[in-house]
Amino acid sequence: MNLLSSLEKVKGVGPKVAEQFADAGLMTVDDLINFLPRAHEDFSHVTRIIDIAPGKATIKARCEKIATRPVRRGLRITTATLADDSGKLQAVWFNQPYRETQLKSGDEFYFSGEFEFNYNRYQLTNPSAELVSAMPVQTDRVLPIYRALKGLKTPLVRKILAELRPLITMLPETLPNDIIKSEKLLSRSEAILAMHFPKALEDVEKARERLAFEELFELLLASQLNRQDNSKLEGWHIPFNQLVVKQFVDQLPFKLTNAQRIAVWEIIQDFGRKVPMNRLLQGDVGSGKTVVAGIAARQAAHSGFQTALMAPTEILATQHAETLQKLLSPFDVSVGLLTGSVKGMARKELYQAIKTGNVDVVVGTHALIQETVQFARLGFVVIDEQHRFGVAQRQELLKKSAHMPHLLAMTATPIPRSLALTVYGELDISILNELPAGRKPIKTKIWSPNSRAQLYELVDAEIGAGRQAYVICTLIDNNPDNELKSVQTEYKKLQNSVFKHRRIGLLHGKLKSDEKDAVMRQFADGQLDILVSTTVVEVGVDVPNATVMLIEDADRFGLSQLHQLRGRVGRSIHQSYCYLITSTSAKPSVRLKEVEKSNDGFYLAEVDLRLRGPGEIYGRSQHGALNLQIATLADTRLIARAQHQARAFVESDKNLLEYKQLAMRVQHYQRLTTLN
After folding, report:
1. Is 663:225 a contact under the CB 8 Å cutoff?
2. Residues 6+ apart with CB under 8 A from 210
3. What is the DSSP string of 345-400?
4. Which domain holds residue 312?
5. Which of 373, 472, 587, 590 has the CB geometry, 3.0–4.6 Å to 551, for a possible disulfide?
6. What does the alpha-carbon distance between residue 618 and residue 419 come to, in Å, rounded to a whole number?
7. Residue 425 placed within a domain
8. Distance CA 554, CA 512 (A)
């Protein structure tokens, strides 16, 4: 047997068990060995019920009574009375009705969970339950808990892995020996053994350090190699013309922030080099990224180069085109807009103008990457909200130039330094962390749904003062499986009751493109007082007169998404407000409290990374491909160590191909994270 052997060759795996593993995506011995535990439970310290104290606790008990009841749609609560020879306590599980069948046998179980005060009493919350008689002897009672993929049960995984233990002791090394030695890491086989068969929690920590280091090292080495490859490319030379830039800046109706000035200078310097620019411009909501891109586009046009700006939505593309048109038209720089709404003869004429170079700046959606779009001399590419585009889509746009064009990726989602170092390691980064002069910090407050009437009075007073408001809901239509507010229902309710004297619009993703644009245009032109919408307004819509952002079921949104939504207001000299209404009157989450206390997107991005992982920030599709099982991108110390070793590896004479498995992982990340 070897790592590529089918699991059916392992003792104890018949056709039925093999099918269970296959459903969970585990086909080979290697798949199962690398199916690492999601957690470890320490059953070595058992407390008698009479001695239990608040906090993490493990007891050995029988279940005397158990029942499950529906509380509301989508939520079932299972409660049980657990007893040992010293006393009894209550346990509760949320949406785990199978516990009834599991615990009714009367057998003894180890229960491990948080003993805490909830619903007016102390109880064990969502404890794990391990049958005492089935406790594996070889683990010293520190047990691995595996993800229940497609119903795969942890005891089965443990049983089959026990058969593979001899093979795990002989796993080949994947990191260079000098790195293992200098970083004082376990070998790969020692780490995998400690994850599946830990003797103590300290073993698990050492194993996690080794495996997390390896994952980060692979990712960072890929970034270093991408940077090395980028340095060999030849790009367009766009010389700096001080007078052109000065004239542009002087005609702006506002003063640039210092952060904008620095970003512009960094881009202009990149333009003058032979190597194509590969830069990420990250700015908090409302920090003025489009103006920075506009100055660079003006410089490019003066040297005879075209600029392409690709945005993820038609609304955002239209807004960018309008902004750039205002900024660039005084200098005879022409701006074209290419989206799905541009049809017939107008589309053909725009294609021709792009091909002949009669359009200097082309703003568009995915329509820009169609084969029919041909540029005369594309020198500068701007990709807004770049994490919403796949690698292939970005590359299709870059291919439309004879040389590699200069690339500026823009994002309004501030990216934590640790994530930028790893996922975007080959990029130079410019940061806009200042808001334009005259802007007031947005006042944010969490509201209980029970106080909605009082809140509506505040919103109505703001509208009475001539301002406008957003109301954001999670769903488009009512869903019988949950009680979240739908945008359709909320629109009708507000229109027929509390705000029947106000003009209300409805916006959601199921509307046709021209319908969305019409509603947004009405709101922007002040023809609507309230816009009831889904998160389709999250990015890019700029309505300076809107000063209220009311978010229903705010606890169901990601932290960075809440910050993005809040950024739709606060775009003028008027005081703005963000109201976060929770879905229940329960205590607000850590996430909501962080949004309430801070307007700093960079701080909130760090919190979001710590709480939720890189998915929200990096983009879900790319995050899935990252496949980090152990490493957390919030661990800046480990990232720094892996970064140091990745640089040393690239600068040494080592041949990556001598490390076969490492080379495969690094090449995967190179394809995944590169922007060009």
Report:
1. no
2. 185, 186, 187, 188, 190, 191
3. HHHHHHHHHHHHT--SEEEESGGGGSTT---SSEEEEEEETGGGS-HHHHHHHHTT
4. 242-272+287-411
5. 472
6. 8
7. no
8. 26
Which residues are registered as beta bridge partners of 443? 577
Entry pTM:
0.73
- pLDDT value of position 47: 92
Distances in Å between the Cα of 348 and the Cα atoms of 162, 342, 353, 375, 463 are 66, 9, 9, 14, 44
The reply to whether 346 falls in a domain is: yes
C-alpha–C-alpha distance, residues 216 and 210, integer Å: 10
One-letter-per-residue 3-state SS of 163-218: HCHHHHCCCCCCCCHHHHHHCCCCCHHHHHHHHHCCCCHHHHHHHHHHHHHHHHHH
pLDDT averaged over consecutive 10-residue blocks of the chain (676 residues)?
A: 91 92 94 93 88 92 93 83 95 91 90 86 90 66 87 90 95 94 97 94 95 93 86 90 96 92 96 91 85 97 96 86 94 94 92 96 94 95 78 80 90 74 76 83 94 94 96 73 72 93 91 83 93 79 90 88 89 93 86 91 81 58 63 82 93 88 87 62
User: In which residue are the tokens 């239990």 written?
Assistant: 52
Give pLDDT, residue 139: 45
Is 638 in contact with 421 (CB distance < 8 Å)? no
∠ CA 536-320-354 to the nearest 5 degrees?
120
- Tell me, yes or no, whether 592 lies in a domain: yes
In this structure, the answer to whether residues 394 and 452 fall within a common structural domain is: no
